[in-house]
Amino acid sequence: YLYLTHESKDAIAKNKHKYSKADIRLLNNFDIDRYITLDVEDKEDLFNEICDIIDDHDLANMRELKNFVKYHGAEYGLPSMKVIRSVMKMSSGIIRLTFDAVYQERRYGRADIDKDTGEVLNNK
Description:
Layout: H1 2-5, H2 9-13, H3 40-56, H4 62-72, H5 81-88, H6 92-108
């Protein structure tokens, strides 16, 4: 799978054209997720990407993340939610805290936080 889409480490090193996952056509209920394997480094990178997406796009729960992946996953090179869920299991506490932070900011607002830097502003 990574070989065919040019997402393998070898293809990336050779600077090959990367094919969009959205362009892959699956036939006869073929389960592509069974063939997506991630090493420890890839899992960590995907986990960090997921946390950044949650924060950058103000996603407050799994449902919002699922919809984001459904509509924008290909733009970010994200695999299916099945793969994402398996990666998220390794640090579900961190994901929960990240979702909770977005929820808290939505619910209570944080006018005392700089939107660009995340710093707490001094309101003296």
